[in-house]
Amino acid sequence: MHELPAVQQIIKIACEKAAAEAASKVVNIKLVAGDRSGFIGESIMMYFEIAGRGTVCEDANIEIETVQSKLKCASCGALFVRKPFEFSCPECGGEGSPTDIGREFYIDSITLM
Ligand SMILES: [Zn+2]
What are the start-end ranges of the E strands in 16-88? Predict the structure, then answer.
């Protein structure tokens, strides 16, 4: 459910950008969403379709790039994607700890027409 306020915010930003550049339409919005961001692509699309109606964002294409979350090795500093049930570093076998990679959620680009 928390996707709706995020989508409304995205639409607001895109509409402001369109207005600032005197564009008539938002063609494409590219988002980056980490797999631990808590945002689900399908929900974003669904809310976007509803919330974007009647705005310059109507019918815009939503592109979502997913970022896999990564752990950082405490011993050698390597960043790696966690395998199921495993936390150890593929380089040295050290213990990995969570990083912010995979928690991001932001607008990468907005294409106007
Ligand atoms: Zn390591």
Answer: 26-34, 61-67, 70-73, 79-81
Question: Which of these CATH numbers, 3.40.30.10, 3.30.2320.80, 3.40.50.1110, 3.40.920.10, describes 3-112?
Answer: 3.30.2320.80
pLDDT in tens, 9-67: 999 999 999 999 999 999 999 999 999 999 999 999 999 999 999 999 999 999 999 99
Q: How far is the CA of 102 from the centre of ligand 1 (A)?
A: 19
**Which residues lie at CB < 5 A from ion ligand 1?**
73, 75-76, 78, 89, 91-92, 94
